[in-house]
Amino acid sequence: MVTESHSLTGTDDPSLGPPPGCPAHGKGPGGLRRLYGPEAEDLGAVYEKLRAEHGAVAPALLHEDVPIWVVLGHGENMHMVRTPSQYSRDTRLWTALQDGTVKPDHPLMPIIAWQPICCHAEGDEHLRLRGAVTSAMSTIDHRGIRRHINRATQHLVNKFCEEGRADLVAQFAEHLPMAVMCEIFGMPDEYSDRIVHAARDMLKGTETAIASNAYIMDVLTRLTVRRRAEPKGDFTSRLINDPAQLNDEEVAQHLRVVLIVAYEATANLLANVLRVVLTDPGFRAQLNGGQMTVPQAVEQSLWDEPPFSTILPYVAKQETELGGRRIRKGDGLILGMEPGNVDPRVRPDLKANMQGNRSHLAFSGGPHECPGQDIGRAIADVGVDALLTRLPDVQLDCEEHELRWRASISNRHLVELPVRFAPKPQQDVMARPAYAVPSQNPSDWQVSRPQPQTAAPEPVAPAPAQAPTPEPAPRPGVFRRLQRWWRGM
């Protein structure tokens, strides 16, 4: 049954607002819930209130009380992203932009504004631009990238391993994705604290965000010109030389989109996985006991805490129906990855194990599904495994309730993740890692099966008579080669 839609325009009548003292006081025009401001500090709770009040598709208000639909249902989100004949990412079709409801200085304009990139393109133009990006992605040497991820992880850990303390957000999660993406793009020399800071700053909406974006674009434009003149085997050269014949502006803009989306999503994913490992004894026990692998842990995190909470806007190309609501032509809709992932119709028990299930919304879907998701997964898989192998005794260095997040309608970013561990010596980043046999202390990290030591072990006292005889060390061969392949060695 299709219900009448809430009007997403004409809600400025003060008589529609709740009277003082009413439980609904504090809502926006028309009694609609705001997705910003003091009432929306916990957007997850707001989404659940909207679900209880309206079902799978709910009316709400963006910043400056711009009306929009929030798609909360898993199936409804999948239908929207998979039906380009009815829903578009071309924001120029959005009535709120056409009639001036969304003003040029709207705080979400950097997200909303149309750009000549595949994310906003339709039809043949989308096929041309998206095809070039996908084709360039397909040429990436994933085995070589896994080796680089491992080396980059060792390099980052070397910077703090002797201290015995670190912030795994500022010193690890915010750096590893940028180091890897700079390598993929063919600009390893550009990786620095400055480009990491600029990538973080431009997403915060600060006073310096425009300058940070200009710096990123300058780096990528110079790279484009350089590779146009001297192509190599990197992602940038492949994008330039694709049969789609992207011009320099198109190349630089697509490099920016891939860089920033991959960076922010993977930084959040790394921080989320590490936080759960450090704060959830049951989660860590499953990894220690072999009931869960790191890739499965990453997939569980993509269900529970998708790196991006929402994507906006999609726009209805014609009058249609979604989740029992009548959607008018030109209405804007929010792709709700976070609320869709906890839709009780697909996850009645949020504590249920989702290992191996990739039907989450973390990477969107349909024509605009993230083309670089396997790179993001590889960075998280290899990076988390390598970090925790180097620091098997790592522990959270604060109370869990003291952790802080920086939240927006787009995502929820952990501010810091302070940890402590026994100081460790630096390691040659080019050497194959040597794995010591892990202790039986339940707090120690055991994500990989023990491997034979490469150096002669220290003498140990004889084991008590009642102790079980240890298993013989595995013989070199297929097993070791498989593990080396998994670690990118």
Automatic annotation (TrEMBL):
InterPro entries documented for this protein: Cyt_P450_B, Cyt_P450_CS, Cyt_P450_sf
SUPFAM superfamilies the UniProt entry points to: Cytochrome P450 (SSF48264)
Compositional bias annotation for Pro residues: 459-475
Compositional bias (Polar residues): 1-12, 438-449
Region (Disordered): 1-33, 437-478
Family statement drawn from the similarity comment of this UniProt entry: Belongs to the cytochrome P450 family.
Name of the protein in question: Cytochrome P450
Species of provenance: Streptomyces phaeochromogenes
